[in-house]
Fold this protein.
Amino acid sequence: MRATYPAAVYLCLFDGGRILLQRRCGTGYRDGELSLPAGHIEPGESATAAVLREAREETGLVLDPARVRLALVQHGRADGDTYIDFFFAADLPAGVQPIVGEPDKASELVWAEAEALPEDVVPVIRNGIEALLRGETYTEYGW
């Protein structure tokens, strides 16, 4: 039997030493905890196209694809699921501010110090952010 895993994208949007997080709500998964703007890769969609779409949907930001880079791949097991996660990094474009684009899925946006993440960041997401900040390009979680 060949293993197949769902794939998800995560946006690590930086403003200096801060990273943008969003508080989950209404999804049934880790509601009340902080995560990154993120989502599943849809059929026929590349990982880059997915992260650009999720950025637009969840934060209202239209990011330049040339300014968004794949920074980390994580193979993780958490909460009964196994995923391949693509963490993309980008800097906040000058003159714009993100908004809560999907209030049914996120109650607020939080700028947090990347090197001192709040305690309530979803653990698998924390693992990915911390690995990225260490300069790793691949990490595993939950194995």
